[in-house]
Design a protein that fits this description.
six-stranded antiparallel β-sheet, SH3 type barrels, two-stranded antiparallel ribbon, 82 residues
Length: 82
């Protein structure tokens, strides 16, 4: 698994799904993406589409398990590699 990356050091490519750590009262981790304008958008079930305001760190998601069907899926664009 990757190490946490500070948002001060590097940002992921826009619209790439990543795991983020939000340093707020709850100290939660979410699956999210960053927009071209630098806004973090959450993928989680109860906050889907909500903006996260206190993201301090992120890391790439691990690759999906090999099922023989889809090798890579982009949740934002809906594009998949088969």
């Amino acid at each position: 698994m990757s190490e946490w990356i500070s948002v001060k050091d590097k940002l992921p490519a826009p619209h790439d799904a990543v795991l983020v750590f939000e340093d707020d009262a709850w100290k939660n981790q979410y699956t999210a993406y960053i927009t071209e304008r630098g806004c973090w958008i959450c993928f989680c079930e109860c906050w889907d589409g909500s903006e996260l305001n206190n993201v301090t760190h992120w890391m790439p998601l691990p690759p999906p398990p090999a099922t023989g069907e889809i090798s890579n899926y982009n949740f934002i664009t809906g594009n998949a590699d088969y």
